[in-house]
Amino acid sequence: MHRSAYDVPPILSIGILGERWPALETLRLTIPAEYRSGGSRLNITVTTLKWLCLTGRPIVTAMVGYMAQHPDAFPFLRSLELESCPEWDILIIMLEQRLLANVQPLERLIFSRAIPPLLKNVLAHIIHGHVRERSSNYELSMQGNSAIFLDATM
């Protein structure tokens, strides 16, 4: 199907229900870039996940946002792989919310590209279960890190 430049990209809509997948422990979701994450509809009630891999900016953005809003959604999640660059501010909020909700912190957080130097220390502390003072959400956001995102050497 040919799409014109004026077509609105489809909205991301995913449903993975725990009653259909009661023992699901590993999940890889890959969503092509032509989907948009704004207005995403996620209905994921699988609480048994231990490993989650997300590929494609729409699913990374949508799922990290979902997990920030529902910090206890995946209480057994131990490993999160992000094969597309996340929105750093939302990722950190999500990790902090998991800690504040008394959900065990992730053991592994894997990225497919370099992490901005400012964030390495913050992420290491959160992964080890410590919420501490950090940069503002703006400084962690894509806008605040635009020079890093445009740096071809990273």
Question: How do the helices and strands line up, and which of them pair or pack?
Answer:
Blueprint: E1 11-16, E2 26-30, E3 36-44, E4 51-55, H1 57-69, E5 79-82, H2 88-100, E6 108-111, H3 117-127, H4 137-140, H5 146-149
Helix pairs in contact: 1-2, 2-3
What does this structure look like?
This protein is α/β, with parallel strands linked by helices and 154 residues long. Helix content is 29%, strand content 21%. The strands form 2 sheets. Strands 2-4-5-6 form a 4-stranded parallel beta sheet, with helices on one face. The chain starts with 10 loop residues before the first strand and ends in a 5-residue tail after the last helix. The relative contact order is 0.13.
Keywords:
single chain, four-stranded parallel β-sheet, globular, alpha/beta
What's the gist of this structure?
The protein is α/β, with parallel strands linked by helices and 154 residues long. The chain has five helices and six strands; from the N terminus they run ββββαβαβααα. The chain has one domain (11-149).
Which radius of gyration do the C-alpha atoms yield? 16 Å
In percent, how helical is the residue content? 25-40%
Mean pLDDT: 82
What are the low-pLDDT stretches, counting only 5+ consecutive residues below 50?
A: none
Strand content: 15-25%
- Structural class by SSE content: alpha/beta
The rounded distance between the terminal residues' Cα atoms is 35 Å
